[in-house]
């Protein structure tokens, strides 16, 4: 719904001046502010309609009104001082000291008259510099700011860029920004201030990029006109065409430059090939100059329109509207609250109205200036209650014999109509003006004016929309409470309470000054939610019991206490409900309100989930930090999970149109979220269906903007790009499939010996310090999944901080480019210092987000670190509920809870069309006390999951990473993956089985060696022990901090197994021919060294290059053993 312009209601006094001050006022007026311009009194002070004063020469007068005041008289200053309390912003365009000389010092007069006034002072030079008292113009200001020195051709004098940089860019626009900042500050403090802006600093700030770039070689470190961005580069310049027009070229990037050469039909070889070589620039410029001269500007437009050559025509101001249909629009377009100069309806695609040109209120760019005094009476009537010529019939013209009133102090000083020029224009030709002809204000006498100013009933409370606090209910209290008498405030409060009592007879009126026990939102709608509000009956840590909760449902979301803490119903007995609260309950007392929301604990699903870190109930931590300005999470804070202000570029699904049937899970459009998730599918919620009655068009939308309308059984419902889903309810699917693709994590011991599958379940149990978190993070960094959901459940905060620090620096290769893996990651952090109850919800929050991306056809990996902390939260809640404990105090339903979580993994066919296949793989870390795998959480988990990566404390102590115990670990997916291996790597399963066999045999031989010594073994067993050592030290171990071994692809793993198993086989053959193993081992020492060095090959070099090296090694190894056996 289109709202009023954002500055509607603001009142601005603008002293007439030159460009920058009026430009700031113009921007304020375009966005809804009422701007009253104070012009100098015209010599013909009593001009009539037949002889109106001429229009002001200033062109920046759009939507402004005018009064002409003689500020050199006391009467004129009295009027200005009377206007100040009614004003929000005053624009001072004068040189330093002018206002002070007029008796209008901002600090000593203006801000005392109106503490909320914002005085915007616009000067040319700095007020404290050597030029402070000197006159100047735009060219002087940009000269001393250093900007002018950068403009011009090499060897020529600097040229002035009209007055755009100083007056408008560095002047009026900067002043406008300062005013907005002051308005925001006033909203927080209730106080105004002086805004100092000058064109020297403003224009200098606009030149920040060139100034910073001066230290960077090749960007802006040379004489003007010879740098990359000031016309020095031939591919960033203007060129004259055949008909005397000009084309602008800005082909900086290589791909744009290629498009430019293609359009010009020039080959790079003509100037030497390297466009960045400055030695070729002069030659390039000559070639481009000659080529552009061959065609007219219109012909070149035909060539380059629709291309990425960055080549556009240089249009003249005169031709913009006449030939191009150009309409000037505001500086920015606000979709929901547009400025006055653009009128867009709610319907997308509606043609925008023609904008307003300079000084124009209608069609075209014809000049129409504001006449001195035009519209001033209307504005004073709105600000001060002034009636044209006669104030409500009470101010009557004085008789000529009456003497002027005695002039007392300045606040009651009358103004003489001879000092004020009120022009009465012909309103019949201006539909925006009132049709009633204004009366002559100069008929009022001094007595009438004084009496008018003395009447207290006419002194209105100055208010400003931006000064109002954002309260959801209750009496609005302006920030300017000093203007309200105490008795009047109490009267207003009593009146508001009486009105509230009349609308809600069942609720007794509150006593003035007594705080209500009901939260603000409930006060506002007490009649509709009375039956949805209970009260606290008892409190036990994070568990509370609420009474008067008849009608609530299991797992319903509730808001607890005055701070509106988030809680969830977990037990219902009669009218009492037991609620686990996900925030700290300190300070909550018996009797505090408990508000039902009527919906379960849900998460928001839509664009914006990636690269975001949430707490356990999907509150964005960065958003909370920005709002609270604290490193802690305030209780009861409510920040949307998905950014409501960010615009997403939506592309509708082709061939989907109005009248088509749509059902849950159907994709009706896509959004580009980031360079890794370039197709975020927008899905209809699973439970929705119907016929499309309004289909969204391509464009930019926010996540909560209703873009799709669906009708089902006569009822229409609108949908946005996001929807909510209960965390405890699995998202429905069309079918579950068996998983046949490997879940590659980049760790050789895991991928080769204990592989997982896409959509599988994995458990990583291990004692403290065994490396569970490190393996979980490695899986997140290097797995072949499309999306990563990392849930830090009860872990230390520094571990989540490590994730936040490491992930943005790590990259993956995508179509030849490197992208940070954070772009595919969603973090859910519920660290050990957060409320324990929220741990229980964090696991479900994570799996629901993972299922959402699974339904888009993505392979999702969810890391839960650790499920032991989650189970401990269950144990604490269970204990506070008084439930019968089971093993080690855990609840008896622990196994069922774990099973319901892990069963949400799997590979599925998603609901809706087009058909999509996706998967969710769950990797759960378990932290058994002391590494005891008989722990209830570990034993229950092992009965559910299909892959067990057991960590060994002794291996971790020996710095063996990953510290996987190969004798304890297992995978039940080996048979499932056989079709994949037969198709891609037929020898892989056989070699993996042989590695496990050698490692297992070596475990038995190690026990024999401890009893009788290694010398008692046969040569065959010695070979097995030596190859097992080779495998343990150089195959099973990986250096996670190296570029060569932090990630190992399957093909490298296969080659390493092939070569090492080949060495074992060749050694066995050699001793079979009668050779001694000691001799063979010494003769093949160089081969063993090269086998140990296989891990040092960097995977990024590519399979082909590295594979050739491994082939050569295998060939040399066979030749070496052949020569040994021939001896």
Automatic annotation (TrEMBL):
Cited Pfam families: ATP-synt_ab, ATP-synt_ab_N, ATP-synt_ab_Xtn, ATP-synt_VA_C, CoA_transf_3
Domain ATPase F1/V1/A1 complex alpha/beta subunit nucleotide-binding: 746-971
Annotated ranges, domain ATP synthase A/B type C-terminal: 979-1079
Basic and acidic residues composition bias: residue spans: 416-426
Domain ATPase F1/V1/A1 complex alpha/beta subunit N-terminal: 536-598
GO cellular component terms given for this protein: fungal-type vacuole membrane; proton-transporting V-type ATPase, V1 domain
Alphabetized PROSITE patterns for the sequence: ATPASE_ALPHA_BETA (PS00152)
Domain ATPsynthase alpha/beta subunit barrel-sandwich per the UniProt entry, residue ranges: 639-728
Catalytic activity: ATP + H2O + 4 H(+)(in) = ADP + phosphate + 5 H(+)(out)
Biased composition (Low complexity): 398-408
Keyword Nucleotide-binding: yes
Predominant localisation class: membrane
Key words of the record: ATP-binding, Hydrogen ion transport, Ion transport, Membrane, Nucleotide-binding, Translocase, Transport, Vacuole
GO MF entry, a single one: ATP binding
Location in the cell: Vacuole membrane
Region annotation Disordered: where it falls in the sequence: 347-372, 390-439, 489-529
Ranges annotated as biased composition (Polar residues): 490-499
Entry's EC annotation: 7.1.2.2
Family affiliation: Belongs to the ATPase alpha/beta chains family. Belongs to the CoA-transferase III family.
Subunit structure of this chain's protein: V-ATPase is a heteromultimeric enzyme composed of a peripheral catalytic V1 complex (components A to H) attached to an integral membrane V0 proton pore complex (components: a, c, c', c'', d, e, f and VOA1).
Annotated protein name in UniProt: V-type proton ATPase catalytic subunit A
């Amino acid at each position: 719904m289109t709202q009023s312009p954002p500055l509607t209601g603001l009142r601005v006094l603008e002293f007439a001046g030159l460009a920058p001050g009026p430009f700031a006022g113009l921007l304020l007026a375009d966005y809804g502010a009422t701007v009253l311009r104070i012009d100098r009194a015209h010599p013909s002070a009593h001009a009539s309609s037949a002889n109106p004063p001429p229009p002001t020469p200033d062109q920046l007068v759009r939507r402004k009104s005018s009064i002409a005041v003689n500020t050199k008289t006391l009467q004129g200053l009295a009027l200005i001082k009377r206007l100040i309390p009614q004003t929000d912003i005053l624009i001072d365009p004068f040189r330093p000291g002018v206002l002070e000389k007029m008796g209008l010092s901002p600090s000593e007069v203006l801000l005392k008259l109106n503490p909320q006034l914002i005085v915007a002072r616009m000067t040319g030079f700095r007020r404290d510099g050597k030029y402070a008292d000197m006159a100047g113009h735009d060219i002087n200001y940009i000269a001393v700011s250093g900007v002018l020195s950068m403009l011009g051709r090499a060897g020529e004098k600097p040229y002035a860029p009209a007055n755009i940089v100083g007056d408008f860019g560095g002047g009026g626009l900067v002043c406008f920004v300062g005013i907005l900042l002051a308005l925001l500050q006033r909203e927080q403090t209730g106080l105004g201030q002086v805004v100092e802006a000058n064109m020297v600093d403003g224009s200098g700030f606009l030149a920040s990029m060139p100034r910073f770039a001066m230290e960077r070689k090749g960007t802006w470190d040379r004489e003007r006109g010879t740098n990359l961005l000031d016309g020095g580069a031939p591919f960033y310049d203007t060129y004259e065409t055949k008909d005397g027009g000009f084309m602008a070229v800005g082909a900086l990037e290589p791909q744009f430059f290629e498009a430019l050469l293609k359009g010009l039909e020039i080959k790079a070889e003509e100037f030497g090939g390297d466009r960045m070589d400055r030695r070729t620039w002069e030659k390039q410029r000559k070639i481009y100059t000659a080529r552009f001269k061959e065609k007219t500007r219109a012909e070149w437009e035909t060539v380059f329109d629709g291309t990425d050559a960055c080549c556009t025509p240089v249009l003249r101001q005169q031709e913009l509207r006449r030939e191009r249909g150009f309409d000037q629009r505001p500086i920015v377009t606000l979709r929901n609250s547009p400025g006055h100069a653009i009128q867009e309806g709610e319907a997308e695609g509606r043609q925008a109205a023609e904008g307003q040109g300079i000084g124009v209120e209608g069609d075209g760019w014809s000049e129409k200036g504001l006449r001195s005094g035009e519209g001033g009476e209307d504005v004073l009537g709105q600000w001060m209650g002034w009636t044209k010529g006669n104030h409500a019939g009470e101010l009557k013209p004085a008789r000529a014999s009456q003497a002027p009133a005695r002039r007392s102090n300045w606040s009651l000083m009358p103004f003489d109509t001879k000092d004020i020029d009120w022009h009465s224009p012909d309103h019949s030709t201006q539909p925006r003006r009132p049709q009633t002809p204004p009366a002559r204000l100069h008929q009022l006498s001094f007595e009438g004016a004084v009496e008018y100013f003395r009447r207290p009933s006419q002194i209105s409370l100055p208010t400003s929309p931006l000064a109002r606090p954002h309260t959801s209910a209750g009496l609005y209290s302006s920030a300017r409470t000093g203007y309200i008498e105490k008795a009047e405030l109490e009267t207003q409060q009593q009146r508001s309470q009486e009105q509230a009592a009349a609308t809600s007879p069942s609720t007794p009126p509150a006593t003035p000054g007594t705080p209500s026990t009901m939260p603000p939102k409930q006060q506002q709608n007490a009649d509709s939610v009375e039956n949805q509000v209970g009260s606290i009956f008892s409190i036990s840590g994070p568990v509370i019991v609420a009474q008067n909760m008849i009608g609530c449902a299991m797992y319903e979301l509730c808001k607890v206490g005055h701070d509106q803490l988030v809680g969830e119903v977990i037990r219902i007995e009669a009218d009492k409900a037991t609620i686990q609260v996900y925030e700290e309950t300190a300070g909550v007392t018996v009797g505090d309100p408990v508000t039902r929301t009527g919906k379960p604990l849900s998460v928001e699903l839509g664009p914006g989930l990636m690269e975001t870190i949430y707490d356990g109930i999907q509150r964005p931590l960065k958003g909370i930090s920005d709002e609270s300005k604290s490193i802690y999470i305030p209780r009861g804070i409510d920040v949307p999970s998905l950014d409501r202000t960010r615009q997403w570029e939506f592309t509708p699904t082709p061939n989907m149109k109005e009248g088509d049937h749509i059902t849950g899970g159907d994709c009706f459009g896509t959004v580009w979220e980031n360079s890794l998730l370039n197709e975020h599918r927008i899905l209809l919620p699973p439970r929705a269906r119907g016929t499309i009655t309004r289909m969204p068009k391509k464009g930019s939308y926010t996540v909560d903007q209703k873009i799709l309308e669906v009708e089902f059984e006569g009822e229409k419902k609108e949908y946005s790009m996001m929807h909510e889903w209960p965390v405890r309810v699995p998202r429905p699917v069309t079918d579950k499939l068996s998983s046949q693709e490997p879940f590659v994590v980049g760790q050789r011991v895991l991928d080769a010996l204990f592989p997982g599958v896409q959509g599988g379940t994995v458990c990583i149990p291990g004692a403290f310090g065994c490396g569970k978190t490190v393996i979980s993070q490695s899986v997140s960094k290097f797995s072949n999944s499309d999306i990563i959901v990392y849930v830090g459940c009860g872990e230390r905060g520094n571990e989540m901080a490590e994730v936040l620090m490491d992930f943005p620096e790590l990259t993956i290769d995508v179509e030849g480019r490197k992208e940070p893996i954070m772009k595919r990651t969603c973090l859910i952090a519920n660290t050990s210092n957060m409320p324990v109850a929220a741990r229980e919800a964090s696991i479900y929050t994570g799996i629901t987000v993972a299922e959402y991306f699974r339904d888009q056809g993505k392979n999702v990996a969810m890391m839960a670190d650790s499920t032991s902390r989650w189970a401990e939260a269950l144990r604490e809640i269970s204990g506070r509920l008084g439930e019968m404990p089971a093993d080690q105090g855990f609840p008896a339903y622990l196994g069922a809870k774990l099973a319901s979580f892990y069963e949400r993994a799997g590979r599925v066919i998603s609901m809706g069309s087009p058909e999509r296949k996706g998967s969710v793989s769950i990797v759960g870390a378990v932290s058994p006390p002391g590494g005891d795998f008989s722990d209830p959480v570990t034993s229950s988990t092992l009965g559910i999951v299909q892959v067990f990566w057991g960590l060994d404390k002794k291996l971790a102590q020996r710095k063996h990473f990953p510290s996987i115990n190969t004798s304890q670990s297992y995978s039940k997916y080996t048979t499932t993956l056989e079709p994949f291996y037969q198709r891609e790597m037929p020898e892989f399963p056989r070699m993996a089985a042989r590695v496990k066999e050698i490692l297992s045999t070596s475990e038995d031989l190690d026990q024999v060696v401890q009893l009788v010594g290694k010398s008692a073994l046969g040569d065959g067993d010695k070979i097995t022990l030596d190859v097992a050592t080779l495998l343990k030290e150089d195959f099973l171990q990986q250096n996670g901090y190296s570029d060569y071994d932090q990630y190992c692809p399957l093909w490298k793993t296969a080659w390493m197994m092939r070569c090492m198993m080949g060495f074992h086989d060749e050694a066995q053959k050699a001793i079979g021919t009668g050779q001694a193993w000691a001799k063979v081992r010494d003769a093949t020492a160089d081969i063993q060294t090269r086998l140990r060095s296989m891990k040092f090959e960097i995977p990024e070099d590519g399979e082909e290059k590295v594979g050739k090296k491994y082939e050569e090694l295998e060939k040399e190894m066979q030749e070496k053993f052949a020569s040994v056996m021939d001896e």
